[in-house]
Amino acid sequence: MAVKERVGMVVSDKMQKTVVVAVENRAPHPKYGKIVVQTRRYKAHDEDNQCKVGDRVRIQETRPLSKTKRWQVKEVLSK
């Protein structure tokens, strides 16, 4: 089974070893055709606290690490 990966922007780094990553999905509306932006926020594990707000990161699905944390930061794409 393929491992799920997402690319998004860090919107919060206030927690210890955890960042909140916002992932945008742009898709046309089924009826009207307008491009609609849907944002989904994932809590991701950041072991070294290296991510800062505004960083573009790749996250990867992992086993449950806490009540709401199911992703981990794989790499920082841009600062």
TrEMBL record:
Keywords tagged on the record: Ribonucleoprotein, Ribosomal protein, RNA-binding, rRNA-binding
Xref: InterPro entries: NA-bd_OB-fold, Ribosomal_uS17, Ribosomal_uS17_bact/chlr, Ribosomal_uS17_CS
Signal peptide limits: none
Cellular component, GO, one term: cytosolic small ribosomal subunit
GO biological process terms on file: translation
CDD domains, alphabetized: Ribosomal_uS17 (cd00364)
Highest rank taxon of the organism: Bacteria
One Pfam family cited in the UniProt record for this chain: Ribosomal_S17
Annotated GO MF terms: rRNA binding; structural constituent of ribosome
Role noted for this protein: One of the primary rRNA binding proteins, it binds specifically to the 5'-end of 16S ribosomal RNA.
Subunit comment: Part of the 30S ribosomal subunit.
Record family assignment: Belongs to the universal ribosomal protein uS17 family.
Protein name as it appears in the record: Small ribosomal subunit protein uS17
Organism: Mastigocoleus testarum BC008
Biological classification of the source: Bacteria, Bacillati, Cyanobacteriota, Cyanophyceae, Nostocales
